């Protein structure tokens, strides 16, 4: 049966972007304001991602920021998209998210990734040589975490207090087919990072669906796709606003990362043809335009992918314009 936009949940990935001229403190203030607005506009969940040693991303202490957002909202689900598990002991994550779930019952999601969320030098500073073993042993690390959160662990010599016995949904995050196989084998919901790694998106979600094994957590496969969205009242305005996102990805291509830059009138004055091509490959799942344009384009995306939920991340320089973008997106899903 064909899915339509107003039949699926819509959510937010906040990369806690630090904009030029501002500080992480400003970012956290704006994140909470955004979360409070999107809660009113009917968004389903609000996720934050773990990154380190990146000047434009402020959510390095992800669990702390999740608590900040959950504490300032009432109903929206809040969680990680994701926690990079090789950086941490599974016990510590069980305790942190057990604490969050105890403070904000029924509202906390735990998305897990196997990448370090940073460069190798910083990864070594986070967890030393243990990071290699943890990344290679990711499936077992996930199982350890599940065990700590289970009631059955109550007789163990090592227990997660709080955490044990709490219903904290675990998601597998990924940008490759390997993560899809793991999510399928574990019978867990799958969130794909198509906002920056769209190349294997279709292959991954097909593998996930074909190999999914029902579990106590999930009876049928569930796919969440994260995409870039920049909405405005006109296509022209949105096409200018999105140049901040383009400049961010130019920094990824060139290795010269900067704080989020203001929009420009002409990207051809900023990047060359090669840089544009490299960035465009990563930005294939990017939706830009007015409400009418987004409705058409996102419905086409839904027709092609059949995803169960769409999560939007929006790198927009001006906070008021960012709020407006999410407000328009909510209207797209409600029509």
From TrEMBL:
SUPFAM superfamilies: Bacterial luciferase-like. GO terms for molecular function: oxidoreductase activity, acting on paired donors, with incorporation or reduction of molecular oxygen. Residues 22-308 form the Luciferase-like domain. GO terms for cellular component: cytosol. Pfam families: Bac_luciferase. InterPro entries: Bact_Lucif_Oxidored, CmoO-like, Luciferase-like_dom, Luciferase-like_sf. NCBIfam families: oxido_grp_1. To bacterial alkanal monooxygenase alpha and beta chains. This is Luciferase-like monooxygenase. The lineage of its organism: Bacteria, Pseudomonadati, Bacteroidota, Sphingobacteriia, Sphingobacteriales.
């Amino acid at each position: 049966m064909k899915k339509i936009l107003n039949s699926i949940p819509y959510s937010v990935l906040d990369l806690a972007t630090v904009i030029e001229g501002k500080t992480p403190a400003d970012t956290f203030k704006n994140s909470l304001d955004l979360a409070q607005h999107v809660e009113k506009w009917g968004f389903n969940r609000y996720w934050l991602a773990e990154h380190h040693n990146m000047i434009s991303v402020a959510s390095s202490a992800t669990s702390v920021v999740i608590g900040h957002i959950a504490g300032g909202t009432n109903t929206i689900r809040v969680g990680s998209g994701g926690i990079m598990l090789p950086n941490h002991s599974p016990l510590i994550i069980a305790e942190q998210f057990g604490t969050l779930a105890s403070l904000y019952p029924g509202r906390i999601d735990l998305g897990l990734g196997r990448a370090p969320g940073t460069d190798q030098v910083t990864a070594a500073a986070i967890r030393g040589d243990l990071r290699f073993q943890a990344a290679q042993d990711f499936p077992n690390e996930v199982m350890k975490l599940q065990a700590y959160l289970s009631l059955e662990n109550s007789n163990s010599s090592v227990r997660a207090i709080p955490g044990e016995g709490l219903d904290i949904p675990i998601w597998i995050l990924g940008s490759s087919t390997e993560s899809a196989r793991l999510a399928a084998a574990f019978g867990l919901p799958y969130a794909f990072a198509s906002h920056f790694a769209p190349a294997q998106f279709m292959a991954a979600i097909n593998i996930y669906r074909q190999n999914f094994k029902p579990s106590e957590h999930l009876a049928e496969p569930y796919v969440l796709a994260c995409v870039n969205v920049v909405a405005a009242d006109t296509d022209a305005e949105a096409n200018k606003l999105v140049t901040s996102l383009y400049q961010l990805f130019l920094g990824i291509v060139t290795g010269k990362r900067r704080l989020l830059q203001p929009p420009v009138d002409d990207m051809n004055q900023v990047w060359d043809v090669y840089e544009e091509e490299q960035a465009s490959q990563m930005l294939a799942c990017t939706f830009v335009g007015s409400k009418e344009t987004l409705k058409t384009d996102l419905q086409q995306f839904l027709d092609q992918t059949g995803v169960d939920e769409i999560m939007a991340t929006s790198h927009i320089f001006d906070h008021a314009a960012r709020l407006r973008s999410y407000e328009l997106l909510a209207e797209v899903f409600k029509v």
